[in-house]
Amino acid sequence: xxxxxxxxxxxxxxxxxxxxxxxxxxxxxxxxxxxxxxxxxxxxxxxxxxxxxxxxxxxxxxxxxxxxxxxxxxxxxxxxxxxxxxxxxxxxxxxxxxxxxxxxxxxxxxxxxxxxxxxxxxxxxxxxxxxxxxxxxxxxxxxxxxxxxxxxxxxxxxxxxxxxxxxxxxxxxxxxxxxxxxxxxxxxxxxxxxxxxxxxxxxxxxxxxxxxxxxxxxxxxxxxxxxxxxxxxxxxxxxxxxxxxxxxxxxxxxxxxxxxxxxxxxxxxxxxxxxxxxxxxxxxxxxxxxxxxxxxxxxxxxxxxxxxxxxxxxxxxxxxxxxxxxxxxxxxxxxxxxxxxxxxxxxxxxxxxxxxxxxxxxxxxxxxxxxxxxxxxxxxxxxxxxxxxxxxxxxxxxxxxxxxxxxxxxxxxxxxxxxxxxxxxxxxxxxxxxxxxxxxxxxxxxxxxxxxxxxxxxxxxxxxxxxxxxxxxxxxxxxxxxxxxxxxxxxxxxxxxxxxxxxxxxxxxxxxxxxxxxxxxxxxxxxxxxxxxxxxxxxxxxxxxxxxxxxxxxxxxxxxxxxxxxxxxxxxxxxxxxxxxxxxxxxxxxxxxxxxxxxxxxxxxxxxxxxxxxxxxxxxxxxxxxxxxxxxxxxxxxxxxxxxxxxxxxxxxxxxxxxxxxxxxxxxxxxxxxxxxxxxxxxxxxxxxxxxxxxxxxxxxxxxxxxxxxxxxxxxxxxxxxxxxxxxxxxxxxxxxxxxxxxxxxxxxxxxxxxxxxxxxxxxxxxxxxxxxxxxxxxxxxxxxxxxxxxxxxxxxxxxxxxxxxxxxxxxxxxxxxxxxxxxxxxxxxxxxxxxxxxxxxxxxxxxxxxxxxxxxxxxxxxxxxxxxxxxxxxxxxxxxxxxxxxxxxxxxxxxxxxxxxxxxxxxxxxxxxxxxxxxxxxxxxxxxxxxxxxxxxxxxxxxxxxxxxxxxxxxxxxxxxxxxxxxxxxxxxxxxxxxxxxxxxxxxxxxxxxxxxxxxxxxxxxxxxxxxxxxxxxxxxxxxxxxxxxxxxxxxxxxxxxxxxxxxxxxxxxxxxxxxxxxxxxxxxxxxxxxxxxxxxxxxxxxxxxxxxxxxxxxxxxxxxxxxxxxxxxxxxxxxxxxxxxxxxxxxxxxxxxxxxxxxxxxxxxxxxxxxxxxxxxxxxxxxxxxxxxxxxxxxxxxxxxxxxxxxx
Length: 1194
Known about the structure:
By secondary structure, the protein is of the alpha+beta class.
């Protein structure tokens, strides 16, 4: 836990000399008499950590923090404060990464347990001062200290410190200022900065777009000029005579056409009456048809809602899932097919091995036990003969005196040795046979282990490949999931932005409709409609309203508009003829009345006339004549002279009344003093004046609303486009995610099967390895025993052979013929016996080998049976899996067919209904448009009929004029007999144009035009890019605005939640935070609403002092709880609370002190009693602060 474990002061405020105060974690109260300096402990901490300015530490300037006894004029002095933190167990926050590049990067180490911050303030003899920081003794700056404070979760703005006056400041804040506290927590300023940066970029785009458009207009103008120059020059013809002849013929045609025109007007009038009757009938029929169509549309809408369009979306989603499952089944089918082929190959191999073993088994000769039995009998008989021969030889030797003793001794030894060797030889032969059998078993087991090891390797490779595939798919799924999450966040943000902006658009449209209605009403009263009718009629010579013809400084605008009054709405025209024509048009069109100011009739004022100004130059409050404060073209001087006359402008009513003049006077505040003595004045009108200088007299509010609506529509269109793209991308990603997830599940199942197989194979290998180990041990033991027997057997056998050789030599050397013959017989029997015994040994060895081969073949057959059994099980599993696969596939295909059928039915039903609804909407729209057109036609017919009557009167006057101008005598038309008036107009105009304005041809214009067109095309592309960039920036502004509002509302909700909890703990009542503007929270303020127990609900302004303090404290604690800090410093926050509320506050602090360090300055008993430790502060001699009752050093 991070906390302050020591604060050290040197000559800081009331702390003279060097004082060290140890602190501990938990709840500590600093108490003492008023003025003793207890708050200076907190001031020192704030000073050291840079959490407040000098005024926050109750000092006008930083040098005032130095102990007064150390400050002497003309000498330097200094103060320093050190704060030591315990940071054991500190961990870096994820969001603590800082992008600022500093000269020297400071950070904590993992092993670091303490951190010491020091700040020294040095006052120079001249009054200047310098402040320096150190971190663990290393020099640094405030920004580096603030970064380290953020790392340990201490807000550099000091939100964890509540000093004297902070509670009062919360109470006295305006609602908007109070809201800005939550703005700071939510980081609204960062969003505002992003919006400002985007606005700056947007303005840059607008400027570039405007420059491009200006350049485009210039190039277009040049293009038109060049196109004219590119036209080939036509030969100039002398056609003045022909032009004159055509003019005479034109007069005759005009007269004849005028006669026809009057007749057409009469017929047209009759047609209008008939058309109007038909249109009225048609209008009634259309209204009935529209009502019938609307009723039908309501029925179809209800039917669509009942059937539900959502079902079709769900069916499409299910169809997509089934297709994914079918693809997965196809993949499993391919795997099963490969596995089946492998099993088939294994079965063929087993069959071949089985057949080969049968052949080998049949080839083994069955051992003939009878031959062995006969051989044994023959050996026994021969052994008896051999024994008898030996006895004979022994008797013969006995009869020979000299050999008797020696022969007996050797025979005795031979017999003894034979009795010893025979069992050893038998045992040796048994051991050798057992070793051969063991070796055969070892070879078989080793072969099995090799096969199992190969299977294990193959299974392990498959498992490894599957694991790689699983890891790859998991990685891809994680990537897709991250993209889906990001897209869903973007879509949510875009949807919220569209909703917010759409609500704003709806509000603006209502405002615009209201302003438009107001504008139309004003237009009717001030003549804008009448002026528009005149301009649409094509009448030339109209200059516009008086208000549009002059400019005025904003300072004098209101005064001059009051002085001019309704004359600003009068229309300036060229002459009285134009005025007469305009009045005539207004009468015919029934478009109201206007006042016209003809420039040739308006009273002529002398521009050099100078009024007497002797008094004016020096008079206090006088500004100038009204007309002198305007800027206008010289041609309108008489107009503005007529409007203002000799009206004088004064700064205020007092100075204006002090002058006795016969001229009108107007003040800057709008008071008007007439020459008659009448004075008009009072407050400014609630709405704008009817006519204003420099405007087109339309309501100013409409223009920004329309501009904002254009921006909003652009943003919504861009947002909808982005939303559509992101939704499509999201659907594709979700589809991919499901497909890969299904594949992952299938691969995981296969991997689990391989793991199970691998486990079984490993168990079999272990079992065979154990068997092989036992056989090896047994074989080693047999080798040892065989070696022992051979070691015994060989010397004895050698000894026996030596005895037999000695005996033979004795018999050979004996001259007795009978002994020699007997010896020869004995040797013959001995050789024959040895041959028979060798033959017997061979037969026995052959029998053993045959038995061993039989046993090997039997073991191999057993192994093949096991393999066949495993193969049968695998085939059964595969067959079962294939059956399940077929069942799943059939079920999925059945479900797919059912869903496809359902989809077709839904598409058919909904498609028919949608088409009907669309057709009905189109029909209703067409009928409504037709009805509007009929209504408009009736209106036009009424207007045209009125205009036709007026036209007939005017055309009759023209006929009389044309008749007077007819040439006498009438000319002969000749070749122009069948030409109409348009032809003559065209011919005459063409001839005049050619005669007056024909110019030479510029031959270089074609190349210049081509180059100009290329520049124009590049400009159009550039404007398109800028338009797209503008749309993106507008959408970014709206999106960031939504994020800003979301961040604020998140912070507000959390602070409101904490406020409710804390206020309930402190007052046993209910309290909450209330926004002034819930729809646009950042444009309103924040109100603290409390309901103390037993009292009515009150707002902060209507509470008592104690209630205000309690509510403000709850708000401060709620702010702190939103951004927790490792330590909190509170300076006499309980001073305005009664005893019960102090006790509640102390309990709240005590409950939170287990998670943070609280240093509270207080002299209230409940607070002191609730604390874990108390530090006493008193004032010692020399006005120095003395600290008593210190806890043990940390």
